Amino acid sequence: MTHTAEQYIVSTPEQLASLFGEIGEASLKKEVSFVHPHYRALIEASPFAVLATSGPDGLDASPRGDPPGFVIVKDEHTLLIPERRGNNRADSLRNILTDPRVALLFLIPGVGETLRVNGRASITADPELLQCFSMEGNLPKCVLIVKVEAVFFQCARAIQRSKLWQPIAPDAKSQIPSAGTMLAALTNEQIDGEKYDRELPSRQRATLY
Prior knowledge:
Layout: H1 13-20, H2 25-29, H3 37-45, E1 48-55, E2 58-65, E3 72-75, E4 78-83, H4 91-98, E5 101-107, E6 114-124, H5 127-132, E7 142-154, H6 157-162, H7 179-186, H8 193-206
Helix pairs in contact: 7-8
């Protein structure tokens, strides 16, 4: 009998359920529609989050980071997130203008559990809110106001499997291309990769905020 790859494509909820079985009680009970005090503690301890958005030009998932507590829990239904200077692509913000749905994944170094938040975002340039996020005398460009719809923690298996918080191998950086190397290749050497890499650390320090 001939087997084809199409035979094994999972395309229905029933097929998916047959692969994974019943959802555990804890997996259902941990999801709430507000920021529980324990979930607030995770958000306030996190220095890093991934923001996912969707828009007419496609999907986007991009990092956000600052000292722990950089995301303010205004109340149990509202998060405030600073949008600082970057590459000016503003992919996430452009998506939010047309589709306010967002998803956030908060990580805490050394902690296996992560926190997921789903909600709807709006963008504000309110001067008073910008002042709340001043860093080194610099204000963010704008602030995201996220109205929370679902919050739950994710178990530590992915972090454990990836060994994410364990020290990296001494030669790890030498095994991957640098930013300059990638840009030089992608632009057919129109961008000087060595010069880009040489200037990058000082440029990042000077433009961090």
